[in-house]
Design brief:
Helix content is 13%, strand content 29%. The protein contains four helices and 39 strands. The strands form six sheets. It has an eleven-stranded mixed beta sheet. Strands 8-11-14-17-20-25-28-31-34-37 form a ten-stranded parallel beta sheet, with no helix packed on it. Strands 9-12-15-18-23-26-29-32-35 form a nine-stranded parallel beta sheet, with no helix packed on it. The longest helix has 14 residues, at 324-337.
């Protein structure tokens, strides 16, 4: 775990909070309730957290106004618990090391344009015609293809591959082993053979997008595969050719989107959701975990199941399914009571 010493006064200033306690007391890390020691920070993010505090004595609590805390422990009062939690973690996040400038082992084509303060680590390959914006960091083993455009302040973690013609906005984070712009899964059947359909489009990633590890975003057949500004994509997600993901949408681990599907602004696809091709997911819709979506989902709709149905309808069906055995027994009993019924 990353640790460093901070006085409560320093912590309070960073969180823009109000301290009730000794400003000179020192803490050195962030901990869960169950493992917190006198040198740790514990952030109370939900009202229910109060039930866990009876025997917890950390170095300081970070808590919203009005949250009850055990006596004798300093408290930093804040407004937004989630924002305070993220800001506290950021104080102890050392990030990943990388070299300044271009590492001697990197292969950079002479036609490339590197912005000011670009950091290229060892064993990176940057092919002809690529343009990389100022302050962008390429960690070890990154490959940037031909005519790729990467904006300012991006971070590509180890072994990310960005294939030809991809366009990426500012402040994009791509985590390890993800592949952006690989050839999409396109074939047609000729006789008994599957023949490849060339993919000649591109991928366009907006700004402030976060892409997890082992994510595949396929190049469009023609046109674009699009991930709009602010979208967040978890690990192990498959995004097929010509998919469009709207602003601030969230796609959670192991979800898969088939070709030409569209996800609206602010929509959420939960873990292992599967979206059929050419399906529209409306703005702010929610596809719950393990759902298989075979029809369009209206804006704001919440769906669940395979095939995905409005969530309350799905739950009612599950209740009825649980009663089927008893229902069959009752029907069988009634049939035996009828004239000519089974003995």
């Amino acid at each position: 775990m990353n640790r460093k010493d901070l006085s409560l006064a320093e912590l309070c200033r960073s969180l823009r909070g109000r301290l009730d306690g000794d400003p000179d007391r020192v803490v050195s890390g962030v901990a869960e309730f169950s493992s917190a020691s006198g040198a740790d920070i514990v952030v109370l993010r939900r009202p229910a957290d109060a039930l866990k505090l009876a025997d917890v004595r950390p170095g300081v609590f970070v808590a919203p106004e009005g949250q009850a805390c055990p006596e004798g422990v300093p408290v930093i009062r804040i407004g937004d618990p989630e924002a305070a939690f993220a800001a506290t973690l950021a104080l102890f996040d050392r990030g990943e090391e990388s070299v300044a400038g271009v590492h001697p082992s990197a292969v950079v084509h002479r036609t490339c344009v590197l912005g000011e303060a670009v950091c290229v680590s060892e064993n990176c390959v940057i092919r002809e015609g690529a343009v990389i914006g100022r302050g962008t960091v390429l960690h070890p083993g990154v490959l940037v293809g031909r005519d790729v455009r990467i904006g300012n302040g991006c971070v590509l973690h180890p072994h990310v591959v960005v294939h030809d013609a991809t366009v990426m906005g500012d402040c994009v984070v791509v985590k390890s082993n993800s592949v952006i712009g690989g050839r999409g899964f396109g074939f047609f059947k000729s006789g008994d053979r599957h023949v490849t359909i060339p993919q000649i489009g591109r991928v366009r990633i907006g700004s402030n997008v976060d892409i997890g590890s082992n994510v595949c975003i396929d190049r469009a057949t023609i046109g674009e595969t699009v991930v709009e500004d602010g979208a967040k994509i978890d690990n192990l997600v498959q995004i097929a050719h010509n998919v469009s993901i709207g602003e601030n949408a969230i796609v959670i681990s192991q979800a898969g989107l088939s070709g030409s599907s569209r996800v609206g602004r602010g929509a959420i696809l939960a873990g292992q959701a599967g979206i059929a091709d050419h399906i529209d997911i409306g703005e702010n819709a929610v596809v719950l975990a393990k759902s298989g979506v075979l029809r369009n989902v209206a804006p704001g709709e919440v769906v669940l199941g395979v095939p995905a149905l409005p969530v309350m309808r799905f739950k009612r069906i599950q209740v009825l399914l649980g009663r089927l055995q008893d229902l069959f027994k009752r029907v069988d009993k009634i049939e035996k009571m009828l004239p000519g019924g089974m003995e």
